[in-house]
Amino acid sequence: MTTRDASAPEEKLDFKKVLPVLVIILVDLLGLSIIIPLMPLYAARFGADAFMIGLLGAAYPFMQFIGAPVLGRLSDRFGRRPILLISQMGTLAGFILLGFANALWLLFVSRIIDGLSGANISTAQAVITDVTNEKTRTQGLGLIGAAFGMGFILGPVIAFAVLLASGDNYQAVAFTAAFFSLTSLLLTFFWLPETYNPEKGTVRTRGPFTFTAMRQALGRPVIGVLLILMFAQQLAFGGYEQMFSLFALNRLGMGARDTSGLFVLAGLFIVVVQAGLIGRWSKKFGDRWLVMMGLATLAVGLLLTATTPQIPVPWYDRARIEAEMQGKTSRQAINVSLPAEEGKGWPGIVWILIASFPAALGGAVLQPAINSLITKSADKGEVGGILGVSAGFYSAANAITPLFFGSLFQWFGAPVPFLAGGLLLGILWLVALRVMKP
Question: Is 308 exposed, middle or buried (0-12, 13-18, 19+ CB in 10 A)?
Fold first, then answer.
């Protein structure tokens, strides 16, 4: 009879240790996801055109790209808890400034502050790394993904409710986001213990990717193609998310409440796919099939969105939308054209709803499937570094997307960004078909 080695890691996840950080992430993401559908319309209220709205959308991921690695390294030196508190204070300050903003430049300042302090998620992942072992770490990090999904479902629901209760008051939504940010900060202060202990050999967070590592990874036959696919799919899907509110406003006369409702439906569908279907599909058909299917469905969804007929929704009221966009703090003329009152009907909203399902399906499966193939194409000793490069491509796409899609929207028309994204993915589908052998 043999006894189990006392030094062997436990195979069950200790939920008591991970629960505080999961709740904190969920509450923190509620603040972020409340604001996301609103930001393009918030900027349009202050007279921003589509390019300027794209620039605003790029401010947060670009500043996060700069700030998060620095704060991550500081968390290795001073501990997770103080850095998480500092980043949450920055997020809170950004949301409060957003609520008081009465000019476009203040929106930029608020997003820059939030982006520079945006180490919330990366530091929370480090906390999970600290309190798990090799056998339970994947499960712990997977729970962060579940908290992400729940946050991005509940956030738009809360935004819709606040807009409905406040008579489309955008400031009320910003202050609601600030409330959730403050709650997250208090939970961290009173509930989350420090988890980093260098004397116990705590695993440190992965450093930021370097351009040398990125260039070397691109030169590898399969991994290079997968990294290009990661960048391109986020460029296309991120642009879809960034410009969707503006597109729906221009084509269908849909305000913030309407687009928040559509974001909720898309979020529910994505969670169903990621939580219940993607694992089954991966086992049955393989990750290559998932990538090919994701590229095809996202391309179809974007092309269908681009061809949405300009028929206002039946409840469209141009005067109400103009009043909503101008709000109480600004009387500037908006730089996004609204549809005429004539010809209202159901075809436009039905069309865009149909288009949203393949777009959401592709967006749901591509990132996890591509990263899975990347890990299977790399040596075991370099998986972390290659995933770091993949995360770098993903972040770079998030920073470039709003500018690229905003410029196309501004200079060539509302459908063009979605048309360009769909055609790009269609071309990459053909490339992947030849390069990614079964």
Answer: buried
Please give the CATH architecture assigned to the domain spanning 13-193.
Up-down Bundle (1.20)
Q: Are 416 and 408 in contact (CB under 8 A)?
A: yes
> What is the rounded CA–CA span in Å between residue 293 and residue 285?
11
Q: What is the DSSP string of 259-272?
A: HHHHHHHHHHHHHH
Q: How far apart are CA 239 and CA 233, in angstroms?
A: 10
pTM of the model: 0.71
What is the tens place of the pLDDT at every residue in 142-168?
567 667 767 777 888 888 889 889 888
Dihedral sign of CA atoms 139, 143, 149, 150 in order: positive
Q: Average pLDDT, stretch 74-97? A: 87
- Out of 3.40.1280.10, 1.20.1050.10, 1.10.8.110, 1.20.1250.20, the CATH code matching 209-321+338-438 is 1.20.1250.20
d(CA 422, CA 430): 13
Nearest Cα to Cα of residue 405 among 393, 396, 414: 414
**% residues pLDDT > 90 (the chain):** 26
CB contact at 8 A, 293 and 79: no
Q: Range(s) for CATH 1.20.1250.20 in the chain?
A: 13-193, 209-321+338-438
CB atoms within 10 A of CB 371: 19
Tens digit of pLDDT for each residue in 57-75? Answer: 888 888 877 776 677 667 7
